[in-house]
Amino acid sequence: MTGQPNARWWHTLPPAQTLVPCGTGTHAVRWEAGGLCLPAHPDAEGELVLMALGGDKPRCVELAGTWARHADDLGVLAVWPRCPADKIAITWEDVEAFRSNHPQVWVSAGGSAAHSAAARRARRGVTGRAGSQGAQAGSAPGHPGRPPRPAPTRHQVSGELEEFRARRLDMLSLLALGPAFQMRLAATVAAAWSDAGSRAARAAHRPALEAALTGRLAPAAAAWLGISPDQVEVSLHEGPGWGSARLAGHGAARRLRAQLPVGWLASVWACGLAVTGGHLVVAVDRAAWPDATVRALSAPDTGPVTLSVRDVAGTDAGSAHWEIAGT
User: Fold this and answer.
1) CB of 39 closer than 8 Å to CB of 27
2) 168 plus 251 within the same structural domain
3) Of 63, 155, 274, 297, which sits 20 to 30 A from 182 (CA to CA)?
């Protein structure tokens, strides 16, 4: 296999494109090499300046700004899908309904249990901050000796509601880009919190990162070992190396205990590589999509082997399908 050293997590991902309502028509929004590009808006930065001065707000340009605001937002990892089957179907009609203050935004045409669970997570993710503030504000009277907090002013309440509404609209708009973009935004966030990322100082956020890792390794481990996702525990691996994966206990008490770096979410999970050819992929050494050289485990408590793999799905398949090369 030929390729470049995998210095960038996006080398295992093909470009993705979708159509977005913009003005009186639709425009293409494209993802490639780790970021969004807007073919219909070659001077997007100039248009952002005009928007700040009160000019028209093209949806594509507005969306690029929304993507940038949430490129390191751990709330994305709390909301976004855990596996390809875990879909969150939000349409642009849903986004417009919210913009118009329609109460029923979360619309599902039937939907699977995974979709319903994902939608519930989405609702929690976009409302969690306001809910947390409300719980804190209401807890003071229940603690003797703690002075009650002053009631918020109308201005404060209005500001918090506007912040909540803006964040919810952001999340809906990003989800409406579709599954391929959802996975790529999750990867972007994970990369920001990886060792080489802009948010590598992560000690205070360790529980959120470990929850994100556990939630995504669990369905992969279920496919790999045939165990329940509830039997998977993941802690954050720091420092050199890929981490570890050990199986302990028997029957219902059996547990897969793994340590993984947060970068695993970007370079492995988001690319659909987690379980390939019956192996759990733990690291990518070299990649130039659709080919990659990876380290993978055939079983827990074993060392990784090196595999050459290829994504045979093609760019229009909607999701990856990796196979061991030559099989």
Assistant:
1) yes
2) no
3) 297
CA distance 299 to 130: 43
Write phi, then psi, for 150 (nearest 5 degrees): -65, 145
Q: Do 173 and 73 share a structural domain? A: yes
Looking at the chain, how many residues does it have?
Answer: 327
Residues 103 and 208 in one domain: no
Residues 76-134: pLDDT tens digits? 999 899 987 888 999 999 999 998 874 433 333 233 333 344 444 444 443 333 333 33
Q: Does 263 have pLDDT greater than 80?
A: yes
Of 31, 29, 20, nearest to 289 by C-alpha is 31
Between CA 136 and CA 151 the distance in angstroms is 12
- Whether 229 shows a pLDDT value over 70: the answer reads yes
CA 151 – CA 154 distance, rounded (Å): 9
Query: Where do the H-state alpha helices sit in 70-112?
Result: 74-79, 92-99
- DSSP H or E stretch at residue 216: helix 206-225
Identify the domain containing residue 11 by its residue range.
Answer: 4-137+154-190
| 283 and 158 co-located in one domain | no
Quote the tokens at residue 134. Answer: 């409300």
pTM of the model: 0.79
